Amino acid sequence: MAKTFQDLDTKLIHTGEPMIAGAVSIPIFQSSTFESEGGKSYDAIRYIRLNNTPNHIALHEKLASLENAQAALVTASGMAAISAALFTVLKGGGHLLVQDVLYGGTHGLLTSQFAGFGLSYDFIDPSAPQSWEAKLRPNTRAIYVEAISNPLMGVPEMEAVVDFAKKHDLVSMIDNTFATPVNFRPPEWGFDLSLHSATKYLNGHSDIVAGVVIGRSELVARINVGLRYYGGTLDPHACFLLHRGLKTLGVRVRQQNENALAVARFLEGHPGVARVNYPGLESSPDHERAKRYFGGFGGMLSFEPSGGEKAAKEFMDRVTIPIVAPSLGGVESLLSRPAYTSHLALTPEERAGLGIGEGLIRVSVGIESAEELIADFRQALEWSSGGQTDSKTREDSGRQER
Q1: Cβ atoms of residues 275 and 269 within 8 Å
Q2: What positions carry a catalytic annotation?
Q3: In the chain, what are the domains?
Q4: CA dihedral 209, 16, 8, 372 (to 10 degrees)
Q5: Would you call 257 helix, strand, or coil by DSSP?
Q6: Is the whole-model pTM more than 0.70?
Q7: Which among 211, 252, 316, 376 would be 20 to 30 A from 141, CA to CA?
Q8: For residues 278 and 261, is the Cβ–Cβ distance under 8 A?
Q9: Strand extents, DSSP E, 7-138
Q10: SS3 category, 317
Q11: What average pLDDT does this structure show over 214-238?
């Protein structure tokens, strides 16, 4: 009897789990080549580069089910997913409407590579739908947003994006990496394509690089055709690790939602912090939108110490629990300064125009004790030049540590 599962947590464990020789966990099919006489289509050949080995097929089934979509495809990295999707949708001289605050890799793809392929783009304000129509061109093919923007944690008018795409016959595309299927499932809201860097939350253990395309079967199939020739296929061992990591996605992300909200509230109330970006805060300009769309507000936040870049450096030198590293979404908390990592390729003027300051710190909140994280952040802020703690308090803190 075929099994069907309704709840996300059950799907994470049981969908895409072929019982092979009675094994509870799918084995790693460490083979590039499979016995085959071929057939009438290229798809009939079983080969790693064609994304159709048992490890790939199991993942595709599981990933599509998580967002209640028709199909899914795994790739060798998040940028492989993004670039393959964009090149497929825009092929032949297409134009893209894309939100202005973006992951630096996506921004770099547009600004440094598009022109050479005869493609074009215009940036839009994702919270101002009334301004989008003015940017349309006869060759506009798609509109692209991020569910939670990197690194300022903005939330677009996502229903408006879908409606606008349908009205103008565009493909609606969304990077759902920060939100994850636990908090937001774009196909349920009408998006054509949902993209992920599976390096982050989907895997969750900071030990692979992978990407995912989820969406309408016709579009995913077209993207897969291109990906086969671009060569951005995920290897079987990484497939296995991603498959395993997905099983704990629900429990991980819910803990990260809870921890990030607690850390964000602490930072918002600290005199040494000038600004906190987190859609779960009532003070966030995107809070009402986030409440409407999301089941949780995510594990990502960013903030600026009052003392600017100097205070940011001192804070990052002083913390003891988070690791200073440029990625995100793992079980451990990570810190980075986007101006010197994810958005380094942008000019200082471009970053300033988008609101990405030199002192901005991006925090990927892990699943450690929230209380211990907050205590660590507190002591680091008190020692940083951005803190407002007087010298006596600093001296007392030093005595306690000694």
Answers
A1: no
A2: 49, 103, 175, 200
A3: 8-246 (3.40.640.10), 249-401 (3.90.1150.10)
A4: -40
A5: helix
A6: yes
A7: 211
A8: yes
A9: 71-75, 95-99, 120-124
A10: helix
A11: 96
